């Protein structure tokens, strides 16, 4: 308990930030418009919604294009090298834009800034950046923004502290579906992963704060909430509560659809599986990253489960929630991965039959244990492996999708289909994209659809006319 209180940002500190927001609003010379460029996972997407909320409270308006904004903020990711390079490349591109528009203000925040040595690098090599801050002091953005505007020279502020801040404004991108963070950080230290270093130690929000936010979302007409955390099923660790309990409490609020991510297989308890089966509003879908199908690689990755334990969890999930939609994350080319070890991953993918899989080539991250290991796998071998993996997964995916033929799915319509403005698409309750005939008026509605076919990763269907 004591530990949790230490990380809680006090109401007085939040009040301070509110007065900084008021100060910025009253400034005569300040940016009038903003644009946020977001990389990375849902955590970052939701952080961007919080940053947008604060910016609008400070009187800034959103600009459609980054070229038009007075303030451009890059919310970065560093989980793999290409994510980081893309972010830095775009920041550099904006330097050119500034030559035409000297008043343009550039900010960089998010996980990359939290990497060891990155703040110094930004100060030295990216001197045109006006403001850089990390993930743990995000709640202090109004103050940092105000100071950066006033002092007119670069401001870098990165903290190591872990924090939980309640009561700051949020500008949500969608009205029908919303992110809701339940815990921050990660303590798992998988040997390849930088997230624990840039997102800090695991800390859970208070249950009453989460329930209040969920109720507020429901009252504002939100139909689907996505509970977020790097490891949601270790929610509440050490504080006498747990994720299954939280899930049941949220389910009781009566929000139409509840999803969550990400779950770690080692913390997937029988209680959680039972809660999945019992909770009416929790959707029949589960994201369960496996990373590898080989026990030796799993051990080296510090995943703390075996292939057998993983497969057993999948069986239990399928028994409790028949037809459940299953997705995963997989890494190929972990240092020292042999051909035979990679083939264990293929056989696992074949055996499980995922509805979708995110596949990645291992990317060494400075400071992580795996980065220093011998036996780094050459790029062409990893590329060949990932192609084989993707081909197998696509085949299994098509086979799995056949189970939906003639079945009814309830689709939360996200928008017009990319191909045709007479088609709409959204996710069914099993987490799979579904396209059917419709128009703008369907957006944000839940529509019952009979599945008639499939195309690539998408199911095709037709609307069921309700009598
Ligand atoms: N907390 C989540 C996801 C974290 S990052 C989890 O534990 O599953 C999302 C995915 O990125 C991971 O599941 C992993 O598959 C991948 N990933 C993380 N670090 C990586 C690295 N160094 N190289 C390649 N992929 C990585
Ligand atoms: Fe990274 Fe592992 Fe934590 Fe996921 S559980 S964020 S992969 S360290
Ligand atoms: Fe990237 Fe940070 Fe998410 S490193 S994957 S944005 S937690």
Provide an overview of this structure:
It is built from 14 helices and 19 strands. Helix content is 37%, strand content 21%. The chain is an alpha/beta fold and 467 residues long. It has three domains: 6-164, Methylthiotransferase, N-terminal domain (Rossmann fold); 177-402, pyruvate-formate lyase- activating enzyme, CATH 3.80.30.20; 405-463, Beta Barrel (OB fold (Dihydrolipoamide Acetyltransferase, E2P)), CATH 2.40.50.140. The strands form five sheets. The chain has a six-stranded parallel sheet, with helices on both faces. Strands 15-16-17-19-18 form a five-stranded mixed barrel. Helix 2 (11-26) packs parallel to helix 6 (141-151), helix 9 runs parallel beside helix 10 (270-278) and helix 13 (339-352) runs parallel beside helix 14. Bound molecules: S-adenosyl-L-homocysteine, iron/sulfur cluster and FE3-S4 cluster. Residues 186, 188-190, 193, 195-196, 230-231, 264 line the site of iron/sulfur cluster.
In short:
The protein has 467 residues and is α/β, with parallel strands linked by helices.
